[in-house]
Amino acid sequence: MATHLHRLLLLFLPSLLLFRRGTPPPPPPSPSAVYPVVLLPGNTCSQLEARLTDAYEPPPESPQCGAGSNERGRWFRLWRNATAMDDPAVAPCLSDQLRVVYDPAARDFRNVPGVETRVLGFGSTTGFLADTEANKDLCMGRLVEALQQVGYRDGETLFGAPYDFRQAPAAAGQPCRAFARFTRRLRALVERASRENGGRPVVLVSHSQGGYFALEFLNRSPLSWRRKYVKHYVMASTGPGGLLLGMRNLVSAPDEAVEAPDALVTLPSPTVFGPGTPPLVVTQDRNYTASDMSEFLTAIGVPPLGVTLYETRALPVQLGFRAPVVPTTCINGVGVSTMKQLVYWDGNFSETPQVVYGDGDGLLPAASIMALDTVIGGARGRSTTSLSSLPTRLTPALSQMLRP
C-alpha cells in the first residue's frame, strides 16, 4: 500500500511516463508553473513532542517516569521515539504519556494530566516520520522526494499538515479541541500557500487516516471557500467502509475505546457492512455486521463509556463520509490478501480468531474500496481509479492537476 504514494506522482506529472530508465529527468518547473501541494500523512506519521508539568503523576508501577526538577518544562520527543520504545525502563513512560483521557465535563479528550503535547513541523513535510527507508514508504517520504525532484520546494510550493493522530475528528456538534485547532491551522496554511503562489488554488493529498481528517476539514469548510482555494483533492488508501483490523485490535485491548478515539473512527461502517452483507464477526450464537457494532463492543468488554463514545462521536463521522464537492481522485490498491471476517466460533473473544481473507489493499477490504464508486463516485467533479491497475490512457485527463 505504501508504494502507491510513490506512484501517485505519475498522476500529477504524467509526462514522466515518457522517460525511459537512464534518460535525464525533465527540467524542474518554475514556481509559477505549478499548483501548490499540501500533504496530509497517514496514521502515526506525524511527530509529537511533549513536556511534563508538576501535575504529572507517573503510574505506580513506573515511578521512574516522573520528570526530575531539572527536566520539567523541557520539550522532548514523544512520538516517534525509537530509543525509548526499545528501552524496557522508558517504554512504559512513553505508553502512559501518549494516552489521552476522556473529560466528561468538557465532553472531549485531553492529554493525561501533567502532559502537554505539540505537533512538530506544521506547514512543512519535514514533520513527517520519513527518517528510515521503511518510514519513507509509509509516510509519504518517497512522494516528497519525487515532487522535489521535479521542482517542488518545501515551504514554497510543497507543504505538510501533520496532525495529532491520537485524536480523530468527532461528529459535528461534539467538542473536539484537537480537530478544531487542526482545522484552523490547515485553513490558514491553504490560504497562505495559495497567496504565496499567485492566488492559485492548492492540491490536497491525503493518505490513510489523513483522509478522514481531510474529508472532515473539506466538508465542514464553506463551499465558497473550497471553490476558491482547492483545485483538486487526492485521497489515497481511505475507504468509506473502514477496516476490520480495528475490531480485532479492540478485542485485544477494549479499553482503547476510551483511551484512543482514533480506534473508533476506522471501525467498519454500516454504510458498507450493514444488514444484508456478509457478517464481519462470526460466532456459533450470533453474527455481527457493522450495524451490530454497539452490541459487539459490549460483548468484547468495551466499557459502557466507550460504546457511548462510538455512537455519539465516531459513528456519525462514518455515516457522514461523503464527497467533498471539489474535484476528487481516489486511489486504492487491490490484489492484496486482506482481512474480511473474524471467526470466534465458541464465542470466546480471548482466543485467537480464525481469520478469513479476501481481496483488498492489505488493510481496506475490497468492499470498502468499491463503495467509493457510490459514496464518492456519484458526486460531481470527481474521478475514482485503482492505482494498481491504472491504465496509461487515464493520465492525459489528469495531466493538468498540478500545472496551470
From TrEMBL:
Name the record gives this protein: Lecithin-cholesterol acyltransferase-like 1
SUPFAM superfamilies attached to this UniProt entry: alpha/beta-Hydrolases
Keyword line: Signal
GO BP term (any one): lipid metabolic process
Signal peptide: 1-22
InterPro entries listed in its UniProt record: AB_hydrolase_fold, LACT/PDAT_acylTrfase
Source organism of this protein record: Miscanthus lutarioriparius
Gene Ontology molecular-function annotations: O-acyltransferase activity
Domain of life: Eukaryota
UniProt xrefs under PANTHER family: LECITHIN-CHOLESTEROL ACYLTRANSFERASE-RELATED
